[in-house]
Specification:
Blueprint: H1 2-11, H2 14-48, H3 65-91, H4 109-136, H5 139-144, H6 149-160, H7 174-198, H8 204-209, H9 213-240, H10 242-250
C-alpha cells in the first residue's frame, strides 16, 4: 500500500502537465490551420486581382465626352471636306488624273465650293475646341508625348508582324502617338493652305508663306492625301480592334 500510494502520489502532478501539453498542441494546430487558411485566402485574392491595365481599367473612362463629340463631328466635317475637295480638284487637276464622280460631292464646281466652305467652318471650330481642350486638360501631354524613334520602330515592327498588344486602350503606343500628332499637324496645314488658296490677295503674306498660290494648292493636296491615308489606317485598326470603336462611342 505504501508503494502504491507513493507511486500514485508521484504520478498525480504529471496529469495536469499532460493536459496542458495536449491543449498547447491543439492551439498550435489551430494557429497553423488559421495561418494556412489566411495564406490561401491571400493567394486566391492575388489570383483574382486584375492585372494592371486590363480589367482594373474596365470601368474607367478611356475617352471623355468632349473627345467623343469632337471625334464624330470631325468625321462628318472631313467626309464633306474631302468629297467636295475632290470635286474642286477635278475642275482644275494638279496631276494627270481625276477622282470618280461617284465619290465626289457638289455635282459641279460651284456646288462643291458651297459644301467645302460650309464644312470648313465646322472643321475649324471643332478643331479649335479639340486642340484647346486637349492642351488645357493635359490630354495631349499625357497621350502624345514623348515620341521616341526607337519605340516607334519597335511598335511598327510589332504591328506589321501582328504582335502589337491592344490590352489597354487608354495608353497609346508609339505608332499611335506619331500618327495622331501627325494628323493634327496635317489638319493645321490643310486649313491654313486652304485659306491661302481662298484669299490669295487679302492674305498674300500667308499665301507667300506656302510659296505662292500654285504651291499652296500642292501643299493643300498633299495634306489632304496624308489625312486620307491616316483615315484608311484608322478605320482598318478600328475593324481589327472592335473594342476601340466601342470606346469612342461609349467612352469605356
Amino acid at each position: 500500500m505504501t508503494i502504491e500510494a507513493t507511486q500514485s502520489h508521484a504520478l498525480t502532478p504529471t496529469a495536469p502537465a499532460a493536459l496542458a501539453s495536449k491543449a498547447s498542441g491543439q492551439r498550435g494546430n489551430s494557429e497553423v490551420r488559421a495561418h494556412s487558411a489566411s495564406e490561401d485566402a491571400r493567394e486566391r485574392a492575388d489570383d483574382t486581382r486584375p492585372e494592371p491595365g486590363s480589367s482594373a481599367r474596365a470601368g474607367a473612362v478611356i475617352h471623355p465626352a468632349w473627345v467623343r463629340v469632337t471625334h464624330w463631328v470631325n468625321v462628318v466635317a472631313m467626309v464633306l471636306m474631302i468629297g467636295s475637295g475632290w470635286e474642286i480638284y477635278n475642275a482644275s487637276p494638279l496631276f494627270p488624273f481625276v477622282f470618280p464622280r461617284g465619290i465626289t460631292l457638289g455635282g459641279w464646281l460651284a456646288g462643291a465650293l458651297l459644301w467645302h466652305f460650309a464644312a470648313m467652318w465646322l472643321l475649324v471650330v471643332n478643331g479649335l475646341v479639340y486642340v484647346v481642350l486637349g492642351i488645357v486638360t493635359g490630354r495631349f501631354q499625357r497621350k502624345l508625348v514623348p515620341i521616341r524613334p526607337g519605340e516607334v520602330l519597335a511598335d511598327a515592327k510589332a504591328a506589321l508582324t501582328g504582335k502589337l498588344a491592344h490590352d489597354d486602350l487608354s495608353v497609346y503606343n508609339a505608332v499611335q502617338k506619331l500618327l495622331y500628332l501627325g494628323v493634327i499637324l496635317a489638319g493645321i496645314v490643310i486649313v491654313l493652305s486652304g485659306i491661302a488658296i481662298w484669299k490669295p490677295v487679302q492674305l498674300q503674306e500667308l499665301t507667300a508663306l506656302f510659296g505662292g498660290y500654285d504651291a499652296a494648292r500642292y501643299v493643300h493636296f498633299l495634306a489632304m492625301a496624308a489625312i486620307v491615308g491616316f483615315l484608311v489606317v484608322h478605320v482598318v485598326m478600328a475593324l481589327l480592334v472592335p473594342k476601340s470603336l466601342r470606346a469612342i462611342i461609349t467612352g469605356r
